[in-house]
Amino acid sequence: MKHNRVKLSLIPKIFAPAIAIAFILLATGVICQAQEFSPRARMNKFAQQPSNNSANAMFSGGRDLIDEAQWARAEEKFAAYVSAYPKEKNADAAMYWMAYSQYKLNKFDKCKDTIGKLLKTYDKTSWKQDAEMLLAQVPQGTKVKVDPVVVEPVVVDPVVVSVSVDPVEVEVRTQEIQERIAEAQARSQERVKEAQARTQERLKEAQERMKNRTIFKYDLNMSMDEAGSDDDPCEFKIVVLQALFQSDVQRGIAAATEWLKPGSTQTTSCKSAALRLLSRNGGKAVTPIILSVAQNETDLKLRARAISALGATNDDSVIDPLRDFALNSPQSDISEAALYALSQHTGPRAMTVLSEIAVSNKPFALRRVAISSIASRQGEPPVDALIRIYDGNQDLETRKVVISGLAHRRSERAGTKLLEIARSSENIELRKGAISAVSRRGGEQAIETL
To answer: Could you tell me which residues come within 8 angstroms of residue 247 by beta carbon, excluding any fewer than 6 positions away?
Structure first.
């Protein structure tokens, strides 16, 4: 590849708009580090656990979906997070963002329910004020729940009932609601202004650095050499790479690929940024590049990041390598990264591999997250998979996790399986769990059965 070198003094003229876009994206989290995975297997879904990188990766993935306005996927992602990591430090934030996604999808009843659970479960949460503001914006409807009663016929004299409504009280309550909405909008605008101010500050700092580095030389390999200085301006190089992707995707892909080649002298931070930009902008064409890093990179954390990025490609060609990483790698970081990638992949083969992991001899924490990922998927195939796992595995803890997964499904077949367990299981713990799951599902059939 031939590289044309130009002086850095031309960069502000050529890439100024793109660099401005880059810093705005930096402020919203687009240029960030790919998910890191702890070497400890700490993916406990139902019991209290310390913070772990798998949870952080799932939470960051949800926030990315919020930034991209993919509300349906964001709701599903944060619902899976709350289900898998109820004791994590970000559980309250995840519940807020799930409610926010439901609000954006006009699922106002679900939004109010989620906010209610948030305020009840985390009464001292720092998200309380945001949740209350969001609740104030939810259209208020009137619902009356009437329990069935048996009424004996009674003969009564006609009674004239007059109802008076105080117009002042109505006006006051209406004004209070409008004030809460206005306050929420003002708070939102204030946050936007703060983010814009931070972006402007960072942009100004970058421009100052560019003025002071007039002897830099720049090429497509992102090499920057300053006479008499050993400084490695990684952050600045990442900004330039982002600018390349904004102005010319193919040149950006070429530059990022050079960064990731074996023997590259780029730092881990730069390589991580290259991975993220490739996975976001390159499509399936860059899958072989990311897969090569996942298979051959010597840095364990960088390998894990590359593996986690493979799930976002949604390419069936990565399923077999991910299966191999998850089931055969002796390193927990790699297994966890592969499991995370499979959970992001929406293809049916990914669910098949998740089912294999769920009944494998891998650590129980890993198998539990695989089952949770299956339960969070749409349609009937996940129900089939959960039932097969339950029927084919005698492990008590595994069966408990499956019951919890079935409790979150609205499928009639899931309800039928829970009723079967509640009535006929020989294990009292499983029967209790199934009865509790039936009650959580709700509905007339559940009430009648209970």
So the answer is: 14, 15, 18
pTM: 0.49
The rounded mean pLDDT for the chain is 76
Residue-level pLDDT at 42: 33
Between 44 and 382, the higher pLDDT residue: 382
Domains and CATH numbers, the chain: 50-137 (1.25.40.10), 233-345 (1.25.10.10), 347-449 (1.25.10.10)
Backbone φ/ψ region at 188: left (φ over 0), alpha (ψ -120 to 50), beta: alpha
Q: Which long-range contacts (CB under 8 A, 24 or more apart) does 282-289 make?
A: 282/249, 282/253, 282/256, 283/313, 284/313, 284/315, 285/253, 286/253, 286/257, 286/313, 287/313, 287/315, 287/317, 287/318, 289/256, 289/257, 289/260
204 vs 215: CA distance, rounded Å: 20
Q: Which of 299, 366, 377, 378 is nearest to 338 (CA)?
A: 366
Q: For the chain, state the CA radius of gyration.
A: 27
Q: Which residues, other chains included, contact 42 with Cβ-Cβ below 8 Å and sequence gap of 6+?
A: 49, 50, 52, 54, 365
How does pLDDT run across 63-85, given as a tens digit for each residue? Answer: 888 878 889 999 999 999 998 88
Could you give the percent of the chain with pLDDT greater than 90? 27
Q: What is the distance between the terminal CA atoms of the chain, rounded to a whole angstrom? A: 71
Which amino acid would we find at residue 46?
Answer: F
Whether the Cβ atoms of residue 328 and residue 300 lie closer than 8 Å to each other: no
Q: Which residues of 208-226 are buried (b: 16+ CB within 10 A; e: fewer)?
A: eebeebeebebebbbebeb
Residue 354: what pLDDT? 94
Q: Is the pLDDT of residue 161 over 50?
A: no
The more confident residue out of 265 and 443 is 265
240 residue type, one letter: V
The number of angstroms, rounded, from the C-alpha of 348 to the middle of its chain's C-alpha atoms is: 20
pLDDT band for 29, please (50, 70, 90 cuts): very low
Can you say whether the dihedral through the CA atoms of 71, 76, 77, 82 is positive or negative? positive
| C-alpha–C-alpha distance, residues 425 and 417, integer Å | 11
Helix (H, G, I), strand (E, B) or coil at 50: coil
